[in-house]
Amino acid sequence: MAEEAVEFNKANIEALVESGKIAAKGIETLGQEGVTYARKSFEDTTAALKGYTAVKTPADFFKLYAENSKKAFDAAVAQTSKTSELVVKLTNESFAPISNRVSVITSKMKAA
Fold first, then answer.
1. Spatial separation of the C-alpha atoms in residues 25 and 51, rounded to whole Å
2. Which of 3, 12, 20, 58 has the highest local Cβ count within 10 Å?
3. CA-to-CA distance for 6 and 19, rounded, in angstroms?
Protein backbone atom coordinates (compact mmCIF):
# COMPACT_ATOMS: atom_id res chain seq x y z
CA MET A 1 0.00 0.00 0.00
CA ALA A 2 2.90 2.34 0.79
CA GLU A 3 4.40 1.58 -2.60
CA GLU A 4 1.13 2.54 -4.27
CA ALA A 5 1.05 5.81 -2.31
CA VAL A 6 4.61 6.61 -3.40
CA GLU A 7 3.74 5.95 -7.04
CA PHE A 8 0.59 8.02 -6.70
CA ASN A 9 2.48 10.99 -5.24
CA LYS A 10 5.24 10.58 -7.83
CA ALA A 11 2.66 10.86 -10.61
CA ASN A 12 1.23 13.99 -8.96
CA ILE A 13 4.68 15.60 -8.81
CA GLU A 14 5.40 14.63 -12.41
CA ALA A 15 2.15 16.31 -13.44
CA LEU A 16 3.15 19.49 -11.60
CA VAL A 17 6.60 19.46 -13.21
CA GLU A 18 5.12 18.93 -16.67
CA SER A 19 2.65 21.73 -16.06
CA GLY A 20 5.52 24.01 -15.05
CA LYS A 21 7.49 23.15 -18.18
CA ILE A 22 4.51 23.91 -20.40
CA ALA A 23 3.89 27.19 -18.58
CA ALA A 24 7.55 28.23 -18.89
CA LYS A 25 7.56 27.52 -22.63
CA GLY A 26 4.32 29.45 -23.07
CA ILE A 27 5.63 32.42 -21.11
CA GLU A 28 8.73 32.40 -23.29
CA THR A 29 6.51 32.50 -26.38
CA LEU A 30 4.51 35.39 -24.92
CA GLY A 31 7.74 37.28 -24.25
CA GLN A 32 8.94 36.73 -27.79
CA GLU A 33 5.61 37.96 -29.13
CA GLY A 34 5.92 41.09 -27.00
CA VAL A 35 9.43 41.82 -28.26
CA THR A 36 8.37 41.24 -31.86
CA TYR A 37 5.40 43.58 -31.46
CA ALA A 38 7.53 46.26 -29.78
CA ARG A 39 10.10 46.09 -32.57
CA LYS A 40 7.42 46.32 -35.26
CA SER A 41 5.72 49.18 -33.43
CA PHE A 42 9.01 51.07 -33.20
CA GLU A 43 9.65 50.57 -36.92
CA ASP A 44 6.12 51.72 -37.78
CA THR A 45 6.45 54.78 -35.56
CA THR A 46 9.79 55.68 -37.13
CA ALA A 47 8.31 55.37 -40.61
CA ALA A 48 5.33 57.50 -39.57
CA LEU A 49 7.60 60.22 -38.19
CA LYS A 50 9.55 60.28 -41.45
CA GLY A 51 6.25 60.68 -43.29
CA TYR A 52 5.46 63.81 -41.31
CA THR A 53 8.58 65.51 -42.66
CA ALA A 54 7.10 65.46 -46.16
CA VAL A 55 3.83 67.12 -45.14
CA LYS A 56 3.16 70.43 -46.90
CA THR A 57 -0.19 71.56 -45.47
CA PRO A 58 -2.07 71.22 -42.20
CA ALA A 59 -4.73 69.21 -44.05
CA ASP A 60 -2.08 66.74 -45.21
CA PHE A 61 -0.73 66.54 -41.67
CA PHE A 62 -4.12 65.68 -40.18
CA LYS A 63 -4.84 63.18 -42.95
CA LEU A 64 -1.53 61.44 -42.32
CA TYR A 65 -2.07 61.61 -38.57
CA ALA A 66 -5.48 59.95 -38.92
CA GLU A 67 -4.04 57.20 -41.13
CA ASN A 68 -1.16 56.53 -38.74
CA SER A 69 -3.46 56.55 -35.73
CA LYS A 70 -5.79 54.03 -37.37
CA LYS A 71 -2.87 51.76 -38.27
CA ALA A 72 -1.50 51.93 -34.72
CA PHE A 73 -4.92 51.25 -33.21
CA ASP A 74 -5.58 48.31 -35.54
CA ALA A 75 -2.14 46.86 -34.76
CA ALA A 76 -2.74 47.21 -31.01
CA VAL A 77 -6.14 45.51 -31.25
CA ALA A 78 -4.69 42.68 -33.34
CA GLN A 79 -1.83 42.19 -30.88
CA THR A 80 -4.17 42.21 -27.90
CA SER A 81 -6.34 39.59 -29.57
CA LYS A 82 -3.31 37.45 -30.42
CA THR A 83 -1.96 37.73 -26.88
CA SER A 84 -5.35 36.81 -25.41
CA GLU A 85 -5.50 33.71 -27.59
CA LEU A 86 -1.99 32.72 -26.54
CA VAL A 87 -2.82 33.18 -22.85
CA VAL A 88 -5.97 31.05 -23.13
CA LYS A 89 -4.03 28.35 -25.00
CA LEU A 90 -1.22 28.49 -22.42
CA THR A 91 -3.66 28.22 -19.54
CA ASN A 92 -5.43 25.21 -21.05
CA GLU A 93 -2.21 23.42 -21.97
CA SER A 94 -0.44 24.07 -18.69
CA PHE A 95 -3.35 22.85 -16.58
CA ALA A 96 -3.96 19.72 -18.69
CA PRO A 97 -1.50 17.50 -16.76
CA ILE A 98 -2.98 18.63 -13.45
CA SER A 99 -6.51 18.13 -14.74
CA ASN A 100 -5.60 14.61 -15.82
CA ARG A 101 -4.30 13.85 -12.33
CA VAL A 102 -7.48 15.24 -10.77
CA SER A 103 -9.45 12.86 -12.98
CA VAL A 104 -7.33 9.95 -11.79
CA ILE A 105 -7.74 11.01 -8.16
CA THR A 106 -11.49 11.37 -8.60
CA SER A 107 -11.83 7.94 -10.16
CA LYS A 108 -9.73 6.38 -7.36
CA MET A 109 -11.89 8.07 -4.73
CA LYS A 110 -15.04 6.76 -6.41
CA ALA A 111 -13.57 3.27 -6.52
CA ALA A 112 -12.69 3.43 -2.83
1. 39
2. 12
3. 20
Burial tier of 97 (Cβ tally within 10 Å: 0-12, 13-18, 19+) = buried
Amino acid at the residue 36: T
How many Å apart are CA 52 and CA 54, to the nearest integer? Answer: 5
Three-class DSSP category at 57: coil
Tens digits of pLDDT across the chain (112 residues): 788 888 889 999 999 999 999 999 999 999 999 999 999 999 999 999 999 999 999 999 999 999 999 999 999 999 999 999 999 999 999 999 999 999 988 888 888 7
Stated pTM of the model: 0.76
Smallest Cα–Cα separation from 95: which of 25, 15, 30? 15
